[in-house]
Amino acid sequence: MNPRKLLWQFLLEHKGSYSLSLLSIIISEFITVQFPNLLGEFTDALQAGKMTNRLLLHYAILLALVGIAYVILYGIGQLWNGALGRQFEYLLRKRLFLHWELLSTTYFRHRSIGDLLNHAMTDVRQVREALSGGLNILTNAVFLLIATLYMTFRTVSVKLTLLSLIPLVFVPLFIVWFGPKVRIASRHVQEGLSDMAELTEESLAAIRLIKATGNEEIEEERFRKRVEEIVRRQMTMFTRSATFQSMIPLMGSIAFAIALLYGGWLALTRQIPLGSFVAFTLYLTMLIQPLQQIGFVINNFQRASASLLRLSILLGEKPEIQSPPEPQALEEVRGEIHVHLPAFQYADADEPTLYEIDFRLPAGRSLGIVGRTGSGKTTLVNLIPRIFDPPSGTVFLDGIDVRQLSLEALREAISYVPQDGFLFSTTIADNIRFGDSEASDEEVHAAARAAAIYEDVMDFPKGFETVIGERGVTLSGGQKQRTAIARALLKRAPVLILDDALSAVDMHTEKSILAELTERRRGQTNIIIAHRLSAVRHADHILVLDEGRVVEQGTHESLLAADGIYAQMYRLQEEEEAVG
Ligand SMILES: Nc1ncnc2c1ncn2[C@@H]1O[C@H](COP(=O)(O)OP(=O)(O)OP(=O)(O)O)[C@@H](O)[C@H]1O
């Protein structure tokens, strides 16, 4: 959903809370403007010689009450609004995360994930700040302004107020016009500094090469230019921020000069009481702040609006791989896989990665896939759960084109374990439970045992409750792979794909995991990609891939008898093991 729509919906849904929080801020402002007025009355009583001890106490208590009421009401408003802003931020983040989850692997191949995350999070924060802080400040400023003007008009003098206000109306205008210039200048300095850091890192990393080729002078020149550029940018920033910072007090001072001149004259000629004059000077200080704030908030809203636009564009990106509008039903999954693929080419590649792949894996059987690095093994298995999309009518699960199935049903039916065994930074138990969120502790432990990770986990300080990544707890490559296998075993999907997921475990462990796997997954479909042939030798069928083609296929025995690439690889690995 469009974030603008989401924002309106959120505001509407929470209109009760928003009205209450804004109302408490508004009331607090009308209370706080009583302060100068009370001081004015106090001055007048003093001047008229009417001050008694009782009256003194009366004013003191009144002023204290005004202060307390203001703090409480303003605090409630701030807190409420702040909480609502956070809620919206959470909603937006969740939306982004769900969206990213849907996007294809290709999408992320073309973008730096760090950059994407950074921008999106800054944008989300910007919107939240506008929504909570911005809205608060704006309400506060507008009503403080109205309340102050009302009080000065009523209790002091309309003419005096309007005259003194002339220089002050320039404050928000100036901030809206000049504020962004200061920000841009400071961003340029930041960019310059990070450019310089990059250059330094690059030069130091290549220091030997620079020395060997006698390029020191060229490098020095490059560095000098960058530094000069930074100094220039810094000077721009200092000039701008100095102008910015001095203009607002200047306008304030002019307003005060007018107030003193005209207000002083009014007081001298007794057209207004002395107390009103005192109150007015206090009101004037109260006016400067909201006017400044209005300027800042306008800038803030402009930035938030740009952020919302960027987020809309980001969230508007359509996932390339989607469920069909009317998916075919898949009830009892048997797990038969059929691939009839003339060719497969990645969107950004010049030529196909796979050619003429044809095989049928009956339900409940196991398939081994071997081949050199880059021969296309991962590409082939990625087409089954549609991590990359195969052409229509080329890959089938239980006789149905995978593109005709809903993504949920398809991915529910398949457990895919990638080579790197990605883990989330949560507990080991939770990581395994991603396979089946309902699983009991016993089931989690049994899956861990089958994946030969149980003993390792028990050696961690908190066993299965150990949080990965916390206090330096890191898992070795093999441990990660085994945890990921435990997760897949727990899922009990009709089809299991291990994509070189045993590469980082030793031969002995591999054997024990494979034995457990055969036992637990009897009657289910298993596809195992491996570099070590020992991992596939017991498979019902083996494909040997080379440069995107199936060059040999059969059982371990038949492939050995054929004495081709497979037999050659097998002999080589046997020799290596004998030596190693
Ligand atoms: N998303 C992609 N876009 C374009 N080309 C890709 C993509 N993924 C892989 N390739 C290319 O496809 C070819 C086959 O890669 P693939 O990962 O399928 O091989 P593999 O046999 O699994 O290799 P390994 O044993 O090293 O895992 C390689 O040349 C690779 O660079």
Automatic annotation (TrEMBL):
Entry keyword set: ATP-binding, Cell membrane, Membrane, Nucleotide-binding, Transmembrane, Transmembrane helix, Transport
Protein's UniProt keywords contain 4Fe-4S: no
SUPFAM superfamilies: ABC transporter transmembrane region (SSF90123), P-loop containing nucleoside triphosphate hydrolases (SSF52540)
Protein's UniProt keywords contain Metal-binding: no
Cellular component, GO annotation: plasma membrane
SMART domains: AAA (SM00382)
A GO molecular-function descriptor: ABC-type oligopeptide transporter activity
TM stretches of this protein: 20-36, 56-76, 135-153, 159-178, 242-265, 271-288
Compartment annotation: Cell membrane
ABC transporter domain span: 339-572
Every ABC transmembrane type-1 domain range: 20-303
Name used for this protein in its record: ATP-binding cassette, subfamily B
Organism, as annotated: Alicyclobacillus tolerans
Taxonomic placement: Bacteria, Bacillati, Bacillota, Bacilli, Bacillales
